Amino acid sequence: MTASETIFALSTAPGRAGVAVLRVSGPMAGEAARALSGEDLPAAREARLRGFRNEAGELIDKGLLLWFPGPNSFTGEDLAEFHVHGGRAVIQGMIDALSHQTGLRPAEAGEFTRRAFDAGKLDLTEVEGLADLINAETDAQRRQAVRQMGGSLSRRIEDWRARVLHVSAHMEAAIDFSDEELPEDLAASVRENVAALVKELDTALAESWRGERLREGLSVAIVGAPNAGKSSLLNAIAGRDAAIVSETAGTTRDVVEVHLDLAGYPVILADTAGLRELPEGGDGIEAEGIRRARARAAEADITLAIFDAAAPASPDAATRDLLTPSSVVVWNKTDLAGTNSAPAIDGYEAIAASALTGQGLDSLLSRLESIAVDQFGLGEAAPAITRARHRTALEEMRLCLARALDAPAPELAAEDLRLAARTLGRITGRVDVEDLLDVIFHDFCIGK
Ligand SMILES: Nc1nc2c(ncn2[C@@H]2O[C@H](COP(=O)(O)OP(=O)(O)OP(=O)(O)O)[C@@H](O)[C@H]2O)c(=O)[nH]1
Ligand SMILES: [K+]
Ligand SMILES: [Mg+2]
Prior knowledge:
By secondary structure, the protein is α/β, with parallel strands linked by helices. The chain contains 15 helices and 12 strands. Strand 1 and strand 2 form a beta hairpin.
């Protein structure tokens, strides 16, 4: 990317809508806005009604023009926004007119945000927060994304990084000024500070799965014997015919997912193939479905095990084999059983339900909801580690700090601390040696 290129794109979703927004960013943005509107630019950050014309002078649409002169814009560059009516022909007309402007080219995916990052408007965690916000499906996901976009994670990372740099700056200075061992009081304070950081990192790492899981959703796999009513339950919960239901055992083969919002938390409910032993040379497609069902059950956070209440005497053995302490057990088809009793299975408390009448679905949903609240609710206080990338960097930083604590010589400890700070800098995308110098000059008188 070269900063001198001017880019443009439709910033709202394509298709019909009341309003569509097109953005132009770069040195030619003002020129393009003048050319299309045939008038001077509006005052900075003030919306003005303008007619937009193509190169033949034909009116494409009337709409609002906004002018954000750099550096006070999202990208840090000159940026113009055209708000027009959101029809396919209007949008295409605007895109064609912008393409005809010299020096303009269509933006690549993420290029506006990339420019905002390059201009120092957002760091990497804030960029990720913005992406998460655009993808957020539930309230809790939105809250986490807004916090991260607002810099909560970066402030936490920067705080750790500043503390590491501070310790290492003191060590480097002591090393420079003497060629012997570190003074004992300095060595003790280094140890104390580094040990405190290691402890905080351990807490953050122990909690890190929460933020990642909130981005992805709690995964629930529905398992059970063929015809237990798994697909019927999925449909009843989703309120639509997401999966095929039939009286033929072995109907479901592919994993069918439905996204739920339970108390603001994302849950991905997956219907799977019924578990059963297939005869030799049996249906290979069903066998593949069963393999996928088992794989999904193994990686799910929760298995929702469905048993047939019409046959209470012999709960399916293959399903019982998959029960774990985080399983939720359901007797389905209670309408056929003629009783609402839900005897425990292998010691697991069960819920009585009927996909047909809807009975018991409330209890089932509130059980899932309370599991989601337990999993996610607690984690909302601290800025979350939301990506494997963050976790890997923190694990690496922890190793560096642990090595620094055990280092046989102060020079080696200082090197490990430098590495720890760099690792953290990778999370926010601000790896910068100038910082180390800044701290040194800040804390020590130059004349000394
Ligand atoms: N009476 C009654 N019938 C049900 C209930 N739930 C499902 N059924 C019926 O049971 C049969 C099997 O239902 P499915 O939802 O296809 O069962 P499944 O567990 O997904 O079956 P496979 O995909 O083949 O493993 C269908 O004929 C459903 O109409 C229920 O609660 N009550
Ligand atoms: K079936
Ligand atoms: Mg099914």
